[in-house]
Amino acid sequence: MKADGCMVLLYGLIIMASLSFAGEARPGNLKAGQALYQQHCLRCHGAMLDGKGPDAAKLRVSPTDFHKYLSRVKGNLELEVTIRRGRKSTAMHEWDSLLTDQQVSDLIAYIRNAVPHLEVKP
Ligand code: HEC
User: Fold this and answer.
1) 22: CA distance to ligand 1 center in Å?
2) pTM of the entire structure?
């Protein structure tokens, strides 16, 4: 009985420690990001992140192909700004009011895991 109580306390401490770590750096969670992407973004940006989602053809401005050079050189902050604010005169509306900060980080982690950032040397 006593040992069980200790284990509960120990698990509690481990969970609290990992939560506070996540809160500090807010690293994106890949699995959560993938689920969010499939739910909200895939229909335009496509399963392969190539901008060829099922709804892409009917849009005047095509969704970004994340594999393109000009997208890969963008840092996380640039992606974040576009996700939060959207892009004027395109189907990419703002997501700030629909997603939490953590969800935006999760999505960026998913995109950048699938298509790594390209460092540009001047
Ligand atoms: C209704 C279609 C649609 C949906 C849904 C959509 N997007 Fe977009 N997205 C676009 C279009 C269109 C653009 C702008 C392309 C351009 O400006 O050339 C864009 C641009 C972007 C960019 C900018 C990329 C770059 O290299 O500049 C990011 C990042 C992005 N979308 C992420 C997302 C994420 C994350 C989601 C899901 C939460 C999402 N989009 C959902 C259509 C969509």
Assistant:
1) 26
2) 0.84
Please give the Cα distance from 95 to 39 (Å, whole number).
Answer: 13
What are 23's two structure tokens?
């809160």
Domain containing 61 equals 28-114
Amino acid at the residue 90: T
Q: Look at residue 89 and tell me if it is in a domain.
A: yes
Number of domains forming the structure of the chain: 1
| Protein residue closest via CA to atom 37 of ligand 1 | 41
Cα 99 to ligand 1 centroid, rounded to whole Å: 14
Residue 65 resides in a domain? yes
Residue nearest (by alpha carbon) to ligand 1 atom 43: 92
- Is the C-beta atom of 91 inside 6 A of ligand 1? yes
Q: Convert the pLDDT of each residue in 54-107 to its tens digit.
A: 999 999 999 999 999 999 999 999 999 999 999 999 999 999 999 999 999 999
Task: Please check whether residue 48 lies inside any domain of the structure.
Answer: yes
CATH code, domain carrying 103: 1.10.760.10
Cα of 65 from ligand 1 centre, angstroms: 9
Residue 13 lies in a domain: no
Structure tokens at 16: 């609290």
